[in-house]
Amino acid sequence: MLNAPRIPELAQRDRFVRRAVAEGRVLTLADEENASVPSQKVAGRTVQLFWSSPIEAGRWAEALAGNRELQDLSLEVFATDLLPGIATAKGFVGTDWVSDPIEAEIDPRDLLIRLKTEAIPHYANAARERREVYLVGNAEGPMLTPGSQKPRTPERLHVFATRADAEAHMKKISGKRVIVDPLPNFIGATLPWAAAGKYPVMIEPIRGAGFLEVKPPELTTRLTEDAAEGVIKTA
Asked: Are residues 85 and 148 part of one domain?
């Protein structure tokens, strides 16, 4: 079992998450053979190395590969492709790796959740700029995504940033139409309706990386804040 991270490791991980979301990218070595090291904590496991700072990444590229050549990966690619692949291989992620004796070795599934959570303010800022969101609906109004029986989960309201994503989901749940919900109506009517029905609201802060549940009051607060730090850069 992987030991619980210590405070310096947590600080290193959290710094990586903040920078990765703010910059919309991460960096790794161009030479993929040198972009991983054996785990110091679990025998037989591999740690894939990533950095949030070009200076740190270049320094360690030279130390590990003998050159400063890097791969610049968009946040979407990192979250939707690389992290699931590392999880499937049962590997870990070295966040802002510096070859310390006590090094951050992060579960990629945990890291993905933290990245999506960090991206919520950026998601909200982008929604404010668009002034609308997209829902799947029928003749009566918004449709809920059915919950599962095993394990038992409630019906959920999925909210989309693009019409294309809403249309894809519409086919999955046999919806009839895509609803373009102006932001004032979404905040003033749709979210209170979801809260009254105790329906979880699902958003995708990093497109393609999977949905994250948010409470309607929390999303309302995010969407009505006066300012945010920026929008996520995409590939």
From this structure: no
